[in-house]
Amino acid sequence: MKINLKLIAPVIVWLVLYLIPIPEGLKANQWHYFAIFAAVITGLVLESMPVGAVGLIGLTFAAVMGYVEPDPNKSLRWALSGFSESTVWLIVGAFIFAIGYRKSGLGKRIALLLVRALGRRTLGLGYAVMLSDLVLAPATPSNTARSGGTIYPIVSNIPKIFGSEPGPTAGKIGTYVMWTAFASTAVTSSLFLTALAPNAAALAIAKKTTNVDISWSQWFVGFAPLGILLLILVPLLSYLICRPEIKESPEVVTWANAELKRMGPLTRNEWVMSGLVILAMFLWITGSNPNISLPYLGANYINATMVVLVIISLLLITRVVDFADIVAEKSAWEVLFYFTSLLTLSSGLNEIGFIRWVAELFAKPLAGTSATVALVALVALFFWIHYFFSSITSHAAAVLPVVLAVGMSVPGVSAPLLTMLCCYSLGLMGVISPYATGPAPMYFGSGFIGKRDFWKFGLIFGLIYFAGLIVIVLPWLKFVG
After folding, report:
1. For residues 434 and 442, what is the distance between their CA atoms, to the nearest angstrom?
2. Of 429, 428, 353, whose CA–CA distance to 385 is shortest?
3. Which residues contact 289 (CB under 8 A, 6 or more apart)?
4. How far apart are alpha carbons 197 and 60 in whole angstroms?
5. Same domain, 70 and 195
6. Residue 367, Cβ density class (10 Å: 0-12 exposed, 13-18 middle, ≥19 buried)
7. Nearest 5 degrees, angle CA 431-CA 376-CA 457?
8. From CA 183, how far away is CA 147, in angstroms rounded?
9. Could you tell me which residues come within 8 angstroms of residue 49 by beta carbon, excluding any fewer than 6 positions away?
10. What predicted TM-score, i.e. pTM, was given to this entire model?
11. Burial degree of 215 (CB within 10 A; 0-12, 13-18, 19+)
12. Are 71 and 131 contained in the same domain?
């Protein structure tokens, strides 16, 4: 009988962690819960089973054992809590948006326009994708809505034009295009204060903790040297790391032009889809701002996920999308189970106090170090501990106060410097894993980026982004500050 090492590896990780002595400062339920979380991550990395199955099994086991909530009824409610998270449904909604782009033909038309304009070289397409995200970023506070709801449905049509599909042919150009889109949104999310909702939340936390207040312009100026450089480099770095098989294709420009002529003028469904996309963008920009009154909606605020539900309803009413199409969208439902499980499991680490223990454990040795070493170490802890999280908002709420408080206890550490470096890292850290930020599960579930490649690319780009924070942003902030 052949032993499936990939299948038993997560069990071995769980068993080893379960059996070793519980570290000082932790209770049995905290350590045993972490053992389950580590086993789930191992299963995801090794692809032991479909990702949704790995997450669901781990979540069910944690709930049955009552590690977070000892009461069985409360434990069940905890296990199901992720299904009510707005981010989860925002992600599912983005997949349904993609159906609308695909069925109406609008996605193909926009993809053909991009190919006709910049498709002569593969690298040019990468810059077109990056610029698309950059244009939308300052006014779209949800990177899931921006990258997942707008960019992803469009760029997912580009590889097919070049004969690149999920699976064996993904490497032709699909892997490159999709990774460039994902890596770009991590940068734009940090470049603008208003490009990622947790940015503002983190600043609010920092103001209460360190009394540091940062304006929109201060935020942009502080990160601009690295942000602009990364936006220039990301398409090129992705090109070098993903190594697309198709380097240039001059004939595809002629073909794209002929295809556009064959498609003719916009159809009724394309016009409807265009109007709904514009409506979604308008509501994401204005309706997601509590300071803008929207009395015609019967409320002063409309959540980004509610916008998605409104647009999906209109897609169904206008028959651009049929309900059968939604039911048949396998990727959306796989991501629903996968991301819901990971979101709940990672939030459980915070709920039981494990994250605070880790932060304090790593912070203690810093008491006797120099201010610069302490500063870099705290930023590193804040950045890389995100492997334990699937929500940037919960990461900021759980870890930022601890890191800032520890930093303030080390003589010579600058509160503004530590605050800005931690806040700038929120968008960048979204690149490190398939669950690190809202758009990640969409690109992960697209099939164009292999599971192992996603982890590998995430680590490479995470190291580059983190190095940029320390090597470029830190000296720059000292210079301008």
Report:
1. 9
2. 429
3. 141, 301
4. 30
5. no
6. exposed
7. 20
8. 10
9. 7, 43, 57
10. 0.72
11. exposed
12. no
Do 133 and 159 belong to one domain? yes
Query: Measured in Å, how far apart are the chain's first and last C-alpha atoms?
Result: 65
Query: What amino acid is encoded at 41 in this protein?
Result: I
Cα–Cα distance for residue pair 45/370, rounded to 1 Å: 37
| pLDDT (0 to 100) of residue 175 | 95
Spell out a b/e string for 3-32, using b for 16 or more CB atoms within 10 Å of the CB, else e: eeeeeebbeebbeebbeeeeeeebeebbbb
79 lies in the same domain as 93 = no
**296 token code pair:** 């015609």
| Co-location of 135 and 79 in the same domain | no
* Residue 299 pLDDT exceeds 60: no
SS3 state of residue 26: coil
- CA distances to 26, 190, 212, 405 from 363, in Å: 16, 25, 21, 10
Note the maximum CA span of the chain. Answer: 71
| pLDDT-based confidence at residue 150 (cuts at 50, 70, 90) | confident
In 406-447 the beta strands, taken as DSSP E runs, fall at none
User: What is the 3-state secondary structure of 157-226?
Assistant: CHHHHCCCCCCCCHHHCHHHHHHHHHHHHHHHHHHCHHHCHHHHHHHHHHHHHHCCCCCHHHHHHHHHHH
In 243-364, where does DSSP find H-type helix? 250-263, 268-282, 304-317, 323-328, 330-351, 354-363
**DSSP classification of residue 299:** S
Q: Give 293's pLDDT tier (boundaries 50, 70, 90).
A: low
Q: In which domain, by residue range, is 31 found?
A: 1-84
In whole angstroms, give the CA distance from residue 437 to residue 431.
Answer: 8
Do 251 and 109 belong together in one domain?
Answer: yes
Q: Which amino acid is at 12?
A: I
* Angle in degrees, CA 475, 476, 481, rounded to 5: 105
Query: 376-408 pLDDT, tens per residue?
Result: 999 999 999 898 887 787 788 778 877 887 887
> Higher model confidence: residue 108 or residue 266?
266
pLDDT > 70? residue 245: yes
At position 436, the amino acid (one-letter code) is: A
Count of the separate structural domains present in the chain: 2
CA–CA dist 315, 323 (Å, integer): 10
The reply to whether 321 falls in a domain is yes
Pick the last residue of a domain from 267, 299, 330: 330
Is a pLDDT exceeding 60 seen at residue 412? yes
Residue 248 pairs in a beta bridge with 121
- Residue indicated by tokens 């244009």: 135
Q: How far apart are CA 401 and CA 385, in angstroms?
A: 14
